[in-house]
Amino acid sequence: MNLPAASKQRLYFLDNLKAFIILLMVVFHVGMGYTTWDLKWWTVNDIQKNMFFDFFILETDVYIMPIMFMIAGYFAPMVLERKGIALFWNDKLKRIVLPWIGGVLFIAPFIAYSSLFSRMDTPPNYFAFWKNDFFGPYYQQAHYWFLGVLALFFLILTIAYQVNPTYFKQSVQKPSPPVWFFPVFALLTTAAFFSGNLYFWNDAWVNVKFIFMLQPVRLILHLCYFGLGVYAWKHSWFTRGGYSPHLLPWGISAIIMLFVFLFYRMTFTLMPDVPVLFKAGHAITHATFSLTATFALITVFQNFFDSNAYLWRRLAANSYTIYFIHQCVVIPLGCIVQKLDINIWVKYCSVSIIALVLCFLLAEYVINPILSLGKQDKNTLIHS
Questions:
Q1: What span, in angstroms and rounded, lies between the C-alpha atoms of 222 and 150?
Q2: Which residues have a Cβ under 8 Å from the Cβ of 99 and sit 6 or more positions away?
Q3: Distance between CA atoms of 108 and 130, rounded to whole angstroms?
Q4: What are phi and psi of 214, to 5 degrees?
Q5: Which of 89, 32, 88 lies closest to 57, judged by CA?
Q6: Would you say 14 and 74 are in contact if contact means Cβ atoms under 8 Å apart?
Q7: Percentage of the chain modeled with pLDDT above 70
Q8: Which of the 8 DSSP states describes residue 374?
């Protein structure tokens, strides 16, 4: 049941957009195994290949994380202002930092090991791999890198809040962004991407003292989107009377930039030793497509999916758990079908649907009820 607009207190469409992005992340990671690139570091490479997945991975990879960081930035100052620094970090330690550490120590090794297990007739012993090899050439944080970087951004936000707490009070007025705002933001993110790309390959990952796994070319770009979320919250974007993006210009721009970006990416940036001028073009197309796709999806969800209907509500409630566990579901399914010589679309769609359903069922009926039971027991002890 949808609530009347006047009674809405929460921006349901942002919750629903975040849930959608995490579901998209699941099918994105399924699709990684079907690209024609035969990625040596990926968990499971299927015997079936199709160039469609090259395009799907390239375009989805551009905007999926900027949207996640922007949504996180939108809600973070609201919680910080309401709870204060101590309670804010108490919550982030339990929901972000500890799961990040646990995921890196206990689940990321399994994900790294799967790249050997799925390729070798006699893979090494898992515990020997975890002890001797994982914290060496096979070290990664899998998808949990996002939690580490997010914790870092929360720390930057907290420092800024202590320096100037008055800035983080939501403005009473709700001005629309000036006409130069989005072009300047696009130029800023272009400069960030281009600067990093001068020193690092555009898709490179860097291990920083086993603490952070970073994409140096995209780190500042992601921080810009986190900051954009903070700015949007301060100026009451997306609320009644506040700025709301229009579907037609953002949608058309995103579709145009999708084709421009894919053409440029496949034509100029997959060659070795990309010239500086081509790197500049890559930065412009990447940053512009990221911005237009982000706001196109925001306006689609604000216009058509601003709903607290039961399914959306449950997907939103379970989205974080689905994000956390999805590789533990996707990888075994990928191994099961890896060498089946069947139609690629039947295989990909079947694995994607089964993975989505299993992740949701595990989150809804197993993991979250257990976590809720633990919270209830704690509250009972406190009040007894």
A1: 10
A2: 144, 147, 324
A3: 10
A4: -125, 150
A5: 32
A6: yes
A7: 94
A8: H
Helix runs in the chain, H state only? 12-31, 51-92, 98-102, 108-117, 126-128, 145-163, 181-197, 219-234, 247-268, 276-304, 310-337, 344-362, 368-383
How far is residue 80's CA from residue 38's CA, in Å, rounded to a whole number? 44
What one-character-per-residue DSSP string does 266-320 give? HHHSSSSS--HHHHHHHHHHHHHHHHHHHHHHHHHHHHH-----HHHHHHHHHHH
pLDDT digits (tens, 9 = 90+) for 201-255: 999 999 999 999 999 999 999 999 999 999 999 999 999 889 999 999 999 999 9
Of 83-97, 201-215, 276-290, 363-377, minimum mean pLDDT range: 363-377
CA nearest neighbour of 115 among 49, 42, 39: 42
What's the CA gap between 209 and 152, in Å, rounded? 15
CA angle 329, 97, 232 (to 5 degrees): 95
Q: How many CB atoms lie within 10 A of CB 140?
A: 18
∠ CA 50-53-56, nearest 5°, is 155
Only one residue has tokens 């974080």, namely 320
